[in-house]
Amino acid sequence: MKHPQFRRDIAAFAADLRGTGQLDDARADSIARVAVREAYHRRVPPALVLGVMLTENDAFKRNARSKVGAMGLMQIMPRLWTPNLGHLLGRNLKDDETNLRYGVYILKHFARSTADTLDPAAATRTALLRYNGCVRGKNTPDCRAYPEKVRRHVENDAQNVCAGRGFHDCVAVPLWAALRDTLSPHVIVASAPASQVPAAAPDRTRPTVRRVARVDRMGNYLLGLVSPRTE
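Now predict its structure.
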């Protein structure tokens, strides 16, 4: 049986998707089910998934492709991620479910890589910059505005998901708390036990480490599958 909180979060996510005026009911419901399921699975605030999706692809085009090759709802870079995760998460990035699985996985991956000394706002900002590929900002000098764009989408478009909470309380603090497996006294998080939430499509916690060619090593390093080494 699905937990009531899980159902409420799906309904709220779908309502916010419909509020954009870009989706019919069927696709809004479909995206919401996958997005919230993956958010629960990875312990990422659903509102963060919605904010990134709207920042990356506010027309929700399955076939969207950026000038650098990023694809789909969450604008995933296939050349970096599918060689390492394709056997775990799928390879068809034009498929909504597959694309969302990658997007939520990558958000959690970069959030987990933030320093423990960062506060909730700084940890969330750092994770979003890394998701956007903004390391030095030389290729896209305005990339450091990305976290603010996500924040605005959450504040403006996640009205039902956040239920009156701002970005800090709806996204930054719950993400920070989940990373540290702790709760502050005022954090509101979904209370559904894992046993009552439908399981996400299975994947392995860590693929078997194998010898990789030089061209694959950086991608694997970013994923935490192998240690960097100089050559």
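The chain has one domain: 4-223.
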